[in-house]
Design brief:
403 residues; flat; Beta-Lactamase; 6-stranded antiparallel sheet; Heat Shock Protein 90; alpha+beta
């Protein structure tokens, strides 16, 4: 059955294309998410699928023939793209909640789907729609099996939480691109400061002539001077405007917010993933903790950083999150179960990679570079602490809200 088209299809496609994600190479951040989804859900396949106008395109996938629980791989689902009419995820984007198909062969929407009818075809599907902060469903993070089955409630919650991390990563990539363009434009303006100074000097000449003639009592002189200088004056103004160009758009929308509930929400966003790894997330907040910030971008940055902490922590580990006032609005993350000699140390990795790479650079953990760029845009300072036998911690201190 051909999937219906969402009522906001035009705006949805616009939001998808603005991300510039289609037909891009694999990235470790997305590969890690499908690997986690497959592991947590015990499913042989997991994919991040984006729904284009007439196709489904996979940004990341794991699994395949003979892979997974009991060797039950799914045949022919790992192609980079398939027609939209064959896509399960094209149905998942029609709603805001998880779409679970326990047995596709018994579901009227999918019984005649060629991916179901073939040998070792899809029998089980669970997909969490990828919904942007503007409310557009771009695709889905899904898990697939060749055997009918169901997921437990913790697995469903973890899949939903992972889908939010996918969207966070997508939107962080877009933020990084905007930030890079704004930085480039500012550098261009700095390079043109000398040119602007020369144009300003030239601008004084016709202005001085106008002032002198305006002071003269003879009306013909004024008329002649205005006529003679108006054209070059207008041209100089046009040159200045062309040189300056449009001002870089602000990429942060800052206002005074309370850091503590924002940190709590970021911790809650990764808690289902941590629960699936039998990890504990302890969040301690001292409120109010006022800070001037873009709440959406800062929460995304914290959520992505906490996701990496959970990803790098061992099964049964612990993540401690604190927010409060310690010489300034402060967020402190600590992983006591990752000691200095245990690879990989998330925060050492963050400090090593994110501090030296621009946010738009190609790197194994591109999202961490954007996280650091968001902290920098908020004028926050980042400090790393590695204590043998006591784990690692990262402290982020923001300027006081009134500064």
């Amino acid at each position: 059955m051909r999937p219906p088209t969402p009522p906001d299809e035009v705006e949805r496609l616009r939001a998808l294309y603005e991300l510039n994600i289609l037909d891009t190479p694999p990235e470790p951040d997305f590969d890690d998410m499908v690997a986690l989804a497959s592991h947590i859900c015990g499913a042989p396949m997991s994919l991040v699928n984006l729904i284009d106008a007439d196709r489904q395109w996979s940004k990341a996938s794991v699994g395949g023939v003979g892979v997974g629980v009991g060797g039950g791989g799914v045949v022919g689902v790992q192609e980079a793209e398939i027609p939209r009419e064959a896509s399960f995820c094209a149905h998942a984007i029609l709603g805001n909640e998880l779409m679970v198909v326990p047995d596709a062969a018994a579901d009227a929407r999918f019984a005649d789907n060629p991916l179901v009818a073939r040998r070792k075809g899809i029998r089980f599907y669970a997909g969490a729609p990828l919904i942007t902060t503007e409310g557009y469903a771009l695709g889905a993070l899904c898990v697939i099996d060749a055997t009918p089955r169901r997921l437990a409630l913790p697995q469903l919650k973890a899949l939903r939480a992972l889908s939010r991390q996918v969207i966070t990563q997508l939107e962080l990539r877009r933020f990084a691109a905007l930030l890079a363009r704004g930085t480039t434009r500012l550098r261009e303006l700095e390079r043109h400061l000398d040119d602007l100074g020369q144009l300003a000097g030239r601008l004084r000449e016709p202005l001085s002539a106008l002032r002198a003639c305006l002071a003269a009592p003879t009306e013909p002189c004024v008329r002649d001077a205005v006529s003679a200088n108006a054209i070059p004056l207008r041209q100089l103004v046009d040159d200045l405007l062309a040189l300056a160009g449009p001002a870089p758009k602000a990429v942060l929308h800052q206002r005074e917010v309370d850091l503590s509930p924002l940190t709590q929400r970021a911790a809650d966003a990764v808690r289902p993933i941590a629960d699936a790894k039998r990890m504990s997330v302890l969040c301690t907040s001292v409120t109010p903790t006022p800070v001037r910030a873009d709440p959406v971008r800062l929460e995304q940055a914290l959520s992505h950083l906490l996701f990496h902490a959970v990803k790098h922590s061992p099964e049964g580990g612990r993540l401690e999150v604190y927010s409060g006032l310690e010489g300034g609005p402060t967020i402190r993350l600590r992983t006591p179960d990752i000691i200095v000699d245990d690879p990989p140390s998330l925060f050492s990795h963050f400090y090593r990679e994110a501090l030296v790479r621009p946010p738009d650079a190609d790197s194994p953990d591109r999202g961490l570079g954007t996280v650091k760029a968001i902290f920098d845009a908020h004028q926050a300072t980042v400090a790393l602490s590695d204590r043998p036998g006591d784990g690692t911690s990262l402290q982020v201190v923001f300027p006081a809200a009134h500064n």
